[in-house]
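Appendix B, example 12.
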Amino acid sequence: MTALLEDVIVVIEDDPDDRHLLARSFRKLGSSVPLRFACDGDEALTLLSGLVSSADQPMRPLVILLDLKLPRRSGFEVLTWIKAQPALRRIPVVILTSSRENSDLRQAYDLGANSFLVKPSQPQALHSLIEQVNGYWLGHNEVAPLMV
């Protein structure tokens, strides 16, 4: 018998203040979807590998929020890895970065990002952005089945 998958939001972000603000924003929105965090590129790959392969508690990422400037492996490397995994490549990846560089924007889309958002510097503006992310990706977007 196959266990039911638990929906999660994966946040790959190295800045603890940004992680805190993101978690607070989802809580303020009343989101019941648990957040799973990774603080660097290597931790992200470990987390994502374990989410879909864990027999104890399999999880289905509904969306991945991915920073580009990460320690160990860059967000670009993580994105490339995600899109190369048959079980993960359909999961929407939203780049959430402070970078306004056109080269980062182009590279992210070339590697398969589904959206590119620049993190605002003000907490209230970040909350408004997360409200829109929540409404679209968790409210309106149809989730593709995982290839497990």
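The chain has a mean pLDDT of 90. Strands lie at 6-12, 35-38, 59-66, 93-97, 115-118.
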